[in-house]
Predict the structure.
Amino acid sequence: MKRAVLLAMIGIMTCCVGAGSALATTLNINGSTTVLPIAQKVGEAYSKAHPEVNVTIAGTGSGNGIKAVIDGMTDIGMSSRWIREGEVKLAFENGKYVVPFAVALDAIIPVVHPDNPVSDLTLEQLRGIYNGKISNWKEVGGPDRRIASISRDSSSGTYGVWVDTVLKGDRIGPRSQLLPSNGAIVQAVSNNPFAIGYVGIGYLRDGLKPLSIGGVAPSYENAQSGAFPVSRTLWMFTDNWPDGERLRFINFLLHPQKGQPLVKESGYVPLY
């Protein structure tokens, strides 16, 4: 009798464990490497609050994040730029209605090696460096050495904002090296005394010297007010209005006492 009861209890426990596994949910987030640190920090906190949810996050670039939403390959797409007209058209053709959520504020900051004496550049000087018309640091108050300009690639939202705001329609010069992520630019600039790159404010760290633009410092306050010349909003996109786990995650991220303090911990400017 006791053996029968014990076997029955084991059977019930096994069923309960199986049910718990079946109820586990995966939330996929994909896109901008600028937004990536925010998603990782918030995702970790969200998983602790909701242990039944497995949050997977991949930094593939803003364009890829938006495309993944349109193709139905991710739950949430991260982007450091606004959705383009062609992407809206593609979404419509695919029967998708892409919904945006502002999640943080940011500034795209030109950075050089700490040994570089240059500390301020105008927008026109940055434009000349990146379209190839300015090729030597001595032309902007630095040493007589060739400028190693480093840019994000065209799938990056950071690249899109930089081209629109700084290059004003010019093409990136052929001598510029294109890299796939903020992290790659951090590494390249910190290892080259004559390099210049640009990164989101959350990627500033030792080994980089941030430059002011036209005398405006790259501070959190100037990013929040929009005074810094290359300021922007960071986004997450979903297919249609989110529900279920997607809605819970975005509400958690936008909550003034839950997710938004984690935005600041990630190095970015919270909305609240």
